[in-house]
Amino acid sequence: MEMEKLVSLCKRRGFLFQSSEIYGGLNGFWDYGPLGVELKRNIKDAWWQDMVTSHDELTVAEGAPSTHEMTGLDCTIIMHPQVWKCSGHYDLFCDMMVDCRAEGCKGRFRADHVATSQCPLKPSKAPGEHGKCDLTEPREFNLMFKTIVGAMGTEEDAAFLRPETAQGIFVNFKNVVDSTRVRIPFGIAQMGKSFRNEITPRNFTFRSREFEQMEIEFFCHPDTSREWYEYWRDRRMKWYTELGLAGNRLRLREHDAEELSHYSCGTADIEYAFPFLTAGEYGELEGIAHRGDFDLRSHMEGKLVKNAEGCLEVEMGPDGKPKYKGSGRDLTYRDDQTNERFTPHVIEPSAGADRATLAFLCEAYTEDEAPDDKGKLQTRVVMKFHPRIAPIKAAVFPLVKKDGMPEIARDIYRALKKRFTAFYDEKGAVGRRYRRQDEAGTPFCVTVDGQTLTDQTVTIRDRDSLKQWRVKVEDVVDEIASRVS
Ligand code: GAP
């Protein structure tokens, strides 16, 4: 699939628009159109439902070491600045950046993307390859967006837009334990906006400056943490495949020891072969990380670093005091059955809602052939979304705008609308109406025709197989419901 075709369909059919497009757009920011907002909402709802609301804490899930509980949070985007100092983001959340000083270029590139970036000078080559290129040495650039809280506008009032949702969960760990009856092992889920001032946002929404994350912080006893890591890695992989990402374009990749963060004892990425990547390359959809006790300890004790023995200890400033002081709050956990007190280990499945949406869009895009109104085969573009995430579940058409057909079709549409997103269309040839719904990814089209007037049945057409069958008007809602959930 060529990426340009998908980008063009996304704009034409209202999945995605460039932010502030009428003013020339803003690099790294995207708006979801009428179809896109439904698609992304369905993906986020599926995640929340599958991970949180429909989780059964009484039964041991397949592959899990024991039963576990799941709950949720919705934290603020701007948090106390100390959060980011203790988490390490203030010092370490940097990419290396290279600037080009050449007149007419003044390009800015991520140092590790130079080879795959385009120099703005013509003829365009990679930065550094054009005769006029004058690149700086790589230097650090912190990706957090800074803002000012309150009216004074001084540096003391500086705060940051969160670059991940995870920290809101860690700093509320104690609140959740104290205000609910959750017992370890349990997970806290959160979805919401995150912001990163990416040096080179690119590849459509893949690397944006404003995006949404769907993160779980799973708290467990250190002795079982390895098993829980494996459980979450496999469970998250299964979630994507069940929603329709194909096996050969999706892979689970365990990080090598040298790729692991300084605190991590295991990380795997779920990756997708996006069409904008070169053959054989994969882009990250989600990371599942074993984070040990790094996060809770950081927020208790202060920013941690690895010492010469490889153990985590509080980083000291030049005055011999902790460089960034922790909260001093006790974030340990006491098991009320064994009386053991310990700092829980954390497994973090961290997904991007926009990257997942992009992967589902890429996977869905299909070109095949379907007969037109005269029975002649025509190329059609069809978005083969899993019915659960399809923006519109069913479209209803009267074959013609007369003989009482629109009235029956409107009644069916109103009945469907109470349960799902549905669409009513009476304009133009029925073949064209089918094509429009194929491009929107609507799994079922319901058509009221001449036979409906005599036997009260309608046709239902399946988007992918093009099969049509008849059902009674009164059974349409149940028929669609049984196929989309
Ligand atoms: N709390 C861990 C964390 O934030 P991450 O790998 O930096 O880990 C998790 O981000 C997920 O967030 C990624 O797998 C990706 O899906 C999404 N993500 C990260 N940066 C992004 C960006 N600039 N644009 C879109 N999605 C992004």
What does this protein look like?
With 485 residues, this protein is α+β, with helices and mostly antiparallel strands. Helix content is 27%, strand content 26%. The chain has 13 helices and 25 strands. The chain has helices spanning 3-12, 34-53, 81-87, 89-92, 166-171, 173-179, 225-242, 294-301, 353-364, 405-417, 430-440, 450-455, 476-484, and strands at 16-18, 30-32, 69-72, 94-99, 108-110, 139-142, 146-148, 158-160, 186-195, 210-220, 250-254, 266-272, 283-292, 304-306, 312-314, 333-334, 341-342, 345-352, 365-371, 377-383, 394-398, 422-424, 444-448, 457-462, 468-472. A 7-stranded mixed sheet has the order 3-9-10-18-13-12-11. A 5-stranded mixed sheet has the order 22-21-23-24-25, sandwiched between helices. A hairpin with a 5-residue loop joins strand 24 and strand 25 (468-472). Helix 2 (34-53) packs across helix 9 (353-364). The chain is globular, with a radius of gyration of 26 Å. The two termini are 28 Å apart. The model has no long low-confidence stretch (mean pLDDT 95). Bound molecules: glycyl-adenosine-5'-phosphate. Glycyl-adenosine-5'-phosphate is lined by residues 164, 166, 196, 198, 207-208, 211, 213, 215, 284-287, 348, 350-352, 354-355. The site of glycyl-adenosine-5'-phosphate has 19 residues, from strand 10, strand 13, strand 18 and helix 9.
Tell me the number of strands: 25
Oligomeric status? single chain
Q: Tell me the radius of gyration.
A: 26 Å
**Structure classification:** alpha+beta
State the helix count: 13
Strand content: 25-35%
Characterize the overall form: globular
**Order of strands across the main sheet:** 3-9-10-18-13-12-11
Mean pLDDT: 95
**What helical percentage do the residues reach?**
25-40%
Ends distance: 28 Å
